[in-house]
Amino acid sequence: MSRIGKTETFELKVGHILAGNKGDYLVEEFLGEGSYGKVAKCSKLWSQEYYAVKIMKISRAGRKEFETMKLIQDLDPDENHLIKMYECFTCRSMTCIVYELLKVNVHDFLMNEEQLVRLCFIRVITQQLLKALKALKSIGVAHCDIKLDNIMFADLDDMNVKLIDFGLAEEAKELSTRTRMQVTQFRAPEVILGLPLDESVDMWALGMVLASAFFTRENSDWRLCTPEEYTESTGEKVRRMNHVIDFDAITDQHRNMYQMHDDDDHKAFIDLLKRMLDVNPQSRITPSQALEHDFITMNPLTFGKPKGLYQRTSGSARAQTLKSYQIYMKARDHKNIYKPTKEL
């Protein structure tokens, strides 16, 4: 092990020790790497604590992220589903930000699931992320980079998620057409058109995240079977979708084809999605309004239950929804609808 001081030049490797302000951190493994630098899993010496340390090669970017994190420190990170920052220090020209160590991002989680994504799972994470957006809006901050990779599980057992990576975050009053934000597929219309911007760009991106989780399975190793292939492997006939011409038709086909959710559940989700994906940012649903939407407030999603049995949620609704999700995900298996790409 070698200790890296605050003024030494170094090439970071496993086994190096980073000298922080509140302790020293041993690099155990690297969790990710990008143009910004690296994220390392580190253990704090003389303790049993583990952290995710983001090491940025560009000090200006590191300082900007740190300043943004300071803005949200007054928000309860656990209550508002935001990643928790512990400290920031420098090693030579590197900026190191110490974050809580989370489990797995939602993108990787979904790619490891054999089943189609269920509304009960989507509702659990939607409610939490709306709380995060509501908290950020309350202090005038826009995340500007919401995507599946930037939503991570703090606890897989209760489906507790947190919003991470504030590297592109900005105060809403500072947003401009020159602001770098959002991956292309989740980019809000007003960003593309160069119109005035505010926190509502995050609501659009969240809507796109939920739509992509519900309607698609972005795994490059697989493709959807053709109707003929599906019939051959399952013995079930499936209708073609050549006549699909609008969003409602797509969602109806998706629900009917896979015998999905109770109609009230499905309609509530689609209605919320439409409001989140309103092309006019002025009329787009806000986080506070979305938290009062029927999709969030109706009783836990159930399967095959008669319609008309929904009431407003009690304090235990989230736990009941989670239980329904866990039971249902174990009971259903849709692996036959996918086929290896090597057979193309």
From TrEMBL:
Matches recorded under PROSITE patterns: PROTEIN_KINASE_ATP (PS00107), PROTEIN_KINASE_DOM (PS50011), PROTEIN_KINASE_ST (PS00108)
UniProt cross-references to InterPro entries, sorted A to Z: Kinase-like_dom_sf (IPR011009), Prot_kinase_dom (IPR000719), Protein_kinase_ATP_BS (IPR017441), Ser/Thr_kinase_AS (IPR008271), Ser_Thr_dual-spec_kinase (IPR050494)
Name of the protein: Protein kinase domain-containing protein
Alphabetized PANTHER family for the sequence: DUAL SPECIFICITY PROTEIN KINASE (PTHR24058), HOMEODOMAIN-INTERACTING PROTEIN KINASE 2 (PTHR24058:SF53)
Top-level taxonomic group: Eukaryota
Binding site for ATP: 54
SUPFAM superfamilies: Protein kinase-like (PK-like)
SMART domains: S_TKc
Similarity comment text for this entry: Belongs to the protein kinase superfamily.
One Pfam family this sequence matches: Pkinase
GO biological process terms, semicolon-separated: intrinsic apoptotic signaling pathway in response to DNA damage by p53 class mediator; positive regulation of transcription by RNA polymerase II; smoothened signaling pathway
Gene Ontology cellular-component terms listed: cytoplasm; nucleus
One Gene Ontology term of the molecular function aspect: protein serine/threonine kinase activity
All residue ranges annotated as the Protein kinase domain in the record: 25-296
Keywords for the protein's UniProt record, in alphabetical order: ATP-binding, Kinase, Nucleotide-binding, Serine/threonine-protein kinase, Transferase
Record flagged with keyword ATP-binding: yes
